[in-house]
Specification:
The chain is of the alpha/beta class. It is built from 21 helices and 19 strands. The protein folds into three domains: 205 residues, 2-enoyl-CoA Hydratase, Chain A, domain 1; 184 residues, 2-enoyl-CoA Hydratase, Chain A, domain 1 (Alpha-Beta Complex), CATH 3.90.226; 37 residues, no CATH class. Strands 12, 13, 14, 15, 16, 17, 18 and 19 form an eight-stranded mixed β-sheet that branches. The protein has a seven-stranded mixed β-sheet with strand order 1-4-5-6-7-9-11, with helices on both faces. The chain has a two-stranded antiparallel ribbon with strand order 2-3.
């Protein structure tokens, strides 16, 4: 290249960068059904908005003083726009050394990388497109010594959780640092059949434990999403993944110093659905579709569910009411009758912290008979997880309204109320509440009387009917123990007004909420 002008050299270096790991490696990536990182960024961001930074970074090869080639660094990043709003975006280039970390004067991506620095300094969302295993044992040979854990700190990754929305998409196999960053995010997604995430991959597991296991069995969506809840959602394809990222960010403010965006809505505020009158069965133990109830109340088509396959006794979703973002926390009577088990409690904690961090009002739709009971639940630590949910609900600073649809019992019921706030609670006529359900409470409180009765079963039923009469929500409303009773059809207009009023309060609460942000 000695005969080329500086501009010609610049253009040539850019072409080498765009070749990535070479035609053979790019083809191999495509054969595995995966896009390259440049294709991923193009598919995610607004067309023509990507401004790459650090494009010339790479390993130079010289013949004497003549530059022969540059192998690009295995990370592509820069600034772009999603929905017309700026973001920092970056991801590993798996076609270059499998996306492993390169030795540079300054890191482009990964923990402590320039992409994170841009998100921090410009106060804009960060999108991580993860496809790599991070470091390698060969780095010790390159340095001449092993490094102590933490040489590449997660400090910036952690700080960002209290500053801007952080999204991570796992698009290949992730272990080590990239896997850690996927967890250090506000929302994460992986692709069915193409993504896996684990602390260490199959080779390490076999060497350490003697267990032979495949990547999908070890860290595919069935484990990482459904059982562990380590990743929030699953996409059907990379294109679907990018659509989900755009949708999630549409509910988020740019940072904690701003309010979430409000969109225009053609869904009437006063829409009153007659279907809500019959959605709760007359038989108290029969289940019903809480997701259908949610969709009948929020702006049509606006519900975006988070962690739908984890902690199934609870439904958490972002939605809109008259165009305003809102967080919905709803018990699911189709799973454990809506009782709160450990996974549901952990799911609620993370979602409430997300909404509190980014100034999104919370609506609890309550049908919870209490904490999950039994040996398995106790061994799994339901009390610890459940009381954590109570604690986090109490610490929330955003406006909260509680709508009791049917059951609201015990400490799990307390996790649906904002005791330190206005404690605004309304209820449907189907509502019931107390320290514990009448059935179990009668069996405990009147154990001797029932046992000594001529007909114990009949006496137990009589006591239940007597006490159930005192449990009428109308009696509690008469004592102003609950702030309002609603015709179910009035739920949408009532909540739309609540969310509109909440905006004034939200404006006074801008800024960081927790020192370390939302806990992963």
């Amino acid at each position: 290249m000695s005969a080329k002008t500086p501009i010609e050299e610049l253009e040539q270096r850019r072409r080498w960068a765009e070749e990535q790991g070479g035609a053979a490696n790019v083809e191999r990536q495509h054969e595995q059904g995966r896009l390259t990182v440049r294709e991923r960024i193009a598919g995610l961001v607004d067309k023509g908005s990507f401004q790459e930074i650090g494009k010339l970074t790479g390993s130079e090869a010289y013949d004497g003083l003549t530059l022969k080639n540059v192998t690009p660094a295995p990370y592509v990043m820069g600034l772009a726009e999603i929905g017309g709003r700026p973001v920092a975006v970056g991801g590993e280039d798996f076609t270059v050394r499998g996306g492993t970390t390169a030795a540079l004067d300054k890191r482009k991506g990964g923990q402590g990388g320039f992409a994170e620095d841009m998100a921090h300094h410009y106060r804009i969302p960060l999108v991580n497109l993860i496809d790599g295993a991070g470091g390698s044992v060969t780095s010790a040979k390159r340095r001449g010594h092993a490094v102590f854990p933490g040489v590449d700190s997660f400090d910036r990754s952690i700080d960002l959780l209290g500053e801007v929305p952080v999204v991570s998409a796992v698009l290949g196999s992730a272990a080590g640092g990239p896997a850690g960053r996927a967890i250090l995010s506000h929302w994460s997604v992986m692709v069915k059949g193409a993504s896996q995430i684990f602390a260490a991959g199959p080779a390490v597991v076999e060497r350490s434990l003697g267990q032979k296991i495949g990547k999908e069995e070890l860290g595919g969506p069935a484990v990482a999403v459904d059982k562990a809840g380590a990743i929030d959602n699953v996409a059907e394809s990379e294109a679907h993944c990018f659509a989900l990222i755009r949708q999630f960010l549409s509910y988020m403010p740019q940072n904690v110093w701003e309010l979430p965006p409000v969109v225009s809505s053609d869904d009437p505020v006063d829409r009153c659905e007659d279907a809500l009158l019959s959605i709760v069965p007359e038989q108290r133990r029969r289940a019903y579709d809480m997701r259908r109830l949610i969709n009948l109340v929020v702006d049509k088509g606006s519900a975006f569910e988070i962690q739908p396959s984890f902690g199934k006794a609870l439904v958490t979703c972002l939605a809109r009411l008259n165009g305003h973002p809102v967080g919905i926390v709803a018990n699911n009577p189709m799973v454990y009758g809506g009782a709160m088990d450990g996974p549901a409690a952990r799911k609620q904690v993370r979602f409430v912290e997300l909404c509190d961090m980014f100034h999104i009002p919370l609506v609890f739709l309550v049908d919870v008979p209490g904490f999950m009971v039994g040996l398995q639940a106790e061994q799994a630590g339901v009390l610890r997880d459940g009381m954590r949910a109570v604690y986090v609900a109490s610490q929330a600073t955003v406006p909260v309204v509680t709508v009791v649809i049917r059951k609201c019992y015990g400490m799990a019921g307390m996790a649906t109320c904002h005791k330190r706030g206005l404690e605004f609670r309304v209820a449907w006529p189907s509502a019931e509440w107390g320290s514990l359900p009448v059935e179990g409470g009668v069996a405990v409180a009147f154990r001797r009387e029932i046992a000594n009765a001529p007909d114990p079963k009949k006496r137990e039923q009589e006591l239940e009917e007597e006490l159930r009469a005192y449990g009428s929500p109308m009696r509690t409303a008469a004592a102003f123990g609950v702030e309002d009773m609603l015709d179910p059809r009035e739920t949408r207009p009532y909540l739309c007004r609540f969310v509109a009023l909440a905006q004034t309060r939200l404006k006074t609460e801008l800024g960081p909420k927790l020192k370390a942000g939302v806990r992963p």
